[in-house]
């Protein structure tokens, strides 16, 4: 439907010109979920399709059981 993409686009349009990065945190692929199902694969794929790159998996950041992944999207500066 494109709602998520539209929300990100609206957020970016509303940011001050000096903002250079968007950062999101979600559940890492390294987290073992019940029945070995990766229920966050779609979430990570959505962010990647919208320009975010996984850059860091801070071990134990949330808890020993839930591994986080930090994803970043660089925004263009003025004149880019």
Model description:
By secondary structure, this protein is an alpha+beta fold. The protein is built from 2 helices and 3 strands, in the order H-E-H-E-E. It has helices at 3-14, 41-49, and strands spanning 21-27, 53-56, 68-74. Strands 1-3-2 form a 3-stranded antiparallel sheet, with helices on one face. The longest helix is centred in the first third of the chain and has 12 residues, at 3-14. It is elongated, with a radius of gyration of 15 Å. The two termini are 29 Å apart. The mean pLDDT is 92.
Keywords, please?
80 residues; alpha+beta; 2 helices; 22% strand
Q: Briefly, what is this?
A:
With 80 residues, the chain is α+β, with helices and mostly antiparallel strands.
The number of helices is 2
What's the SSE pattern? Answer: HEHEE
* Global geometry: elongated
Nearest-angstrom radius of gyration?
15 Å
- The total beta strand count reads 3
| Helical fraction | 25-40%
Main sheet, how many strands, which sense, barrel?
A: 3 strands, antiparallel
Proportion of beta-strand residues? 15-25%
Q: Walk across the major sheet and give the strand order.
A: 1-3-2
Low-pLDDT parts are none
- Structural class based on helices, strands and sheet pairing: alpha+beta
Overall mean pLDDT stands at: 92
Q: N- to C-terminal separation? A: 29 Å
């Amino acid at each position: 439907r494109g709602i998520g993409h539209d929300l990100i686009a609206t957020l970016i349009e509303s940011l001050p010109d000096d903002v250079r990065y968007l950062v999101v945190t979600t559940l890492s692929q390294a987290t073992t979920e019940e029945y070995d199902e990766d229920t966050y694969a779609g979430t990570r794929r959505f962010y990647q399709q919208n320009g975010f790159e996984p850059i860091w998996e801070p071990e134990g950041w949330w808890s020993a059981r839930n591994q986080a992944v930090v994803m970043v999207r660089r925004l263009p500066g003025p004149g880019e």
